[in-house]
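User: Second chain of the day. Same drill as before.
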Amino acid sequence: MTKTHTNPNPKGLIPKVMYREYTDTEPDTDIPILLHPLIMRIALVGPGIMPIPPPGWGAVEILIWDYYQELVRQGQEVDIVNPIRRSEWDQSDATTPYMQSLIDTLNRGNYDWVHIHYDCLYHMIPHLTCPGVAITSHFPYIDQPDKHGGYANIFSNICYNHRHMIYALSQKDYDMFARHAVDPSRIRLMVNGANHRTIVPTNDDTGPNRDRSIYIAKVEPRKQQYKYWTLPDMDFYGKCDDPGFRALPCYRGEKPHDELMQIMAGYGNLVLLSTGEADPLVIKEALMAGLPVVTNTYSSTVLDPSLPWVDIIPDDRLEDLDYIGRVIRDNRTKRTLKDEIRRYAVEHFSWEKLVGDYVSTFQAPPT
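Assistant: Same format as last time:
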């Protein structure tokens, strides 16, 4: 099903914005559009695993939806192209019926720029006819070749970037691509952000979770919930396929993203101690809600460690639960700095700023 939404630009300067997706969700258009001097037709290509915006957890899908909404506000013509796959085989190479249809859709769309947000789709890049192509890899271990496994072939092909741009989500990913890409001039650092309009601090500082911590992530080994669930006064949210973990009293379930952001704002701080991340979206969201953050070195590469509301657990203390518990408790007291945290987040990580920078990278793509 294809949906067409009229751009609500009151001056009528942009004729239309297209939104192609299997969903009934309308983009949020209540906020005035900011017109960027460069107006382009852009396709954001999703993984095809779930609808965009996602009904529950889906970090890449949330990211694409945030990009879409802000691009619309800035006056761009945008499609989300995200046909839902039946199986992984659909995306296994460029010759499958699924991929042929996807390539045809993109080539008929007359796009100036196609941005692929799922690295498994790299093999369609040579078949695209648009002037500009970019790809973002969300693989959590880009900078750790010993963990590449089946990703090694994907990484190698992404690095063969004679005609496409590579958008890296963190400096460590950027550095890894720069060491291996055939054209390092076609790499850009584009960190994740958060929606400063919909994610806001709570004015209620007396709620039941004010003295508790929230840990938001899909429950899986690299996110390390299994290691830290015994820490006191901490609740875990996120997709979970393990009946054993779902039965724990500290597990609070998977919530729709908007609801989860409201819940998060009522906690004392956010904790994320993951062994594999590109640039965790949830940390930016927590800062936007005015929460202090406890994280580890690997999850904090785009954060300033000198900030008083950011506490980074050293690698050699990640097994010391008593120490981590003390850091978390102390960090919760820094929630009194929520207005300062919020200002910092808006200044550095608002999508308004980041998407403006993103569009600017289209102005003079390398030739």
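The radius of gyration is 21 Å.

User: Great, on to the next one.
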